[in-house]
């Protein structure tokens, strides 16, 4: 068995990197209180959005921040619809002119599906 043992370092558990000259990111430790009476704390990045609720690692119940801080909802940017983008490029009078022009082309049979052309006359079939 000794001839099969790996010689050297332990597998994957030891790092030879040196931490000298490495600047760690700023962190914040936040304390939470569980509804069952447990206390626990977690470390977050300094600029992270810290949640006001966290699951207790001991019992799984909901824990709340001890400092009572709650995340302020960020103002959501309103969704730009197709109409909003169209209005950025065209005014209402321009849109009405374009609509009138396109309707005339459609009615003249120059554009659009055949069944919408006015020049086509439909006849009733006799049974």
Task: Give an overview in words.
The chain is built from two helices and four strands. With 127 residues, the chain is α+β, with helices and mostly antiparallel strands. Among the domains are: 39 residues, RNA polymerase-binding protein A (Rubrerythrin, domain 2), CATH 2.20.28; 35 residues. The chain has a four-stranded antiparallel beta sheet with strand order 2-1-4-3, with no helix packed on it. Strand 1 and strand 2 form a beta hairpin. The radius of gyration is 35 Å and the shape is elongated.
Short description:
The chain has 127 residues and is an alpha+beta fold.
Major sheet attributes: 4 strands, antiparallel
CATH superfamily of the domain at 27-65: RNA polymerase-binding protein A
Radius of gyration: 35 Å
Helix vs. strand class: alpha+beta
Number of helices: 2
CATH top level assignment of the domain at 27-65: Mainly Beta
| Chain-averaged pLDDT | 81
**Elements, N to C (H/E):** EEEEHH
CATH architecture of the domain at 27-65: Single Sheet
Report helical residue fraction: 10-25%
What's the topology here?
Blueprint: E1 27-34, E2 39-45, E3 53-55, E4 62-65, H1 82-89, H2 92-107
Antiparallel strand pairs: 1-2, 1-4, 3-4
What are the defining features of this structure?
elongated; Rubrerythrin, domain 2; alpha+beta; 127 residues
